[in-house]
């Protein structure tokens, strides 16, 4: 089921990009290495890949998702600072508010956890999820327009969070973390739909 969710999300993201490309042949595409929003995503990817894994789903989910959320907040702050679209700014502010709250929840929960549930399968799923996120980032159409790039890349970022949260629900045991994981899935699925709808008519 988790793989189906990821595949459907990835197909949606790629199809939106492909449709936009065919409908705007004069669109300027910015090299990924020159894009500030992409730089932020690469920075969080590097931090996540460097994280020392405990192999305990409770600890690794909370620590990894904290870093993941920090990346989303950085991207959302860029949208608030330099973006022009009010709808996207509203989504950005919602992301900041929700994910700052969840980061504090993760930190509180982590302070009470010790390694006691070794699950190598979950660790492998997390590693696989990061590879999928990296691959999805590389095929996105980015232009240097903050609104466009925020919507495009946040969809990829959100899909990665949904995949990790879905994996945690399958492997984890902590009731508080399961509540957060379900909230991530529900909230970010809705935001992917909103961002995708915006891109269908506003990609630039």
Description:
This protein is mainly α. It has one domain (2-25, 32-202): Up-down Bundle (Ferritin). The protein contains 7 helices and no strands. The protein has helices spanning 2-23, 36-50, 57-82, 86-110, 120-138, 146-171, 175-202. Helix 4 (86-110) runs antiparallel to helix 7 and helix 5 runs antiparallel to helix 6 (146-171). It is globular. The model is unreliable at 2-8 and 11-26 (pLDDT under 50).
What is the fold-level CATH name, i.e. the topology? Ferritin
Subunit arrangement of the protein = single chain
For the record, what is the CATH homologous superfamily label? Answer: Ferritin, core subunit, four-helix bundle
Order of helices and strands: HHHHHHH
Provide the CATH architecture. Answer: Up-down Bundle
As a percent range, the share of helical residues equals: over 70%
Q: Helix/strand/pairing class, anyone?
A: mainly alpha
Tell me the distance between the termini: 34 Å
What fraction of residues sit in β-strands?
under 5%
> If helices are DSSP runs of H or I spanning 4 or more residues, what is the number of helices?
7
Report the average pLDDT across residues.
Answer: 88
Which stretches are low in confidence, meaning pLDDT under 50 for 5 or more residues running?
A: 2-8, 11-26
The biggest beta sheet reads: none
CATH top-level class? Mainly Alpha
Apparent shape = globular
Radius of gyration: 17 Å
Total individual domains: 1
Give the number of DSSP strands.
0
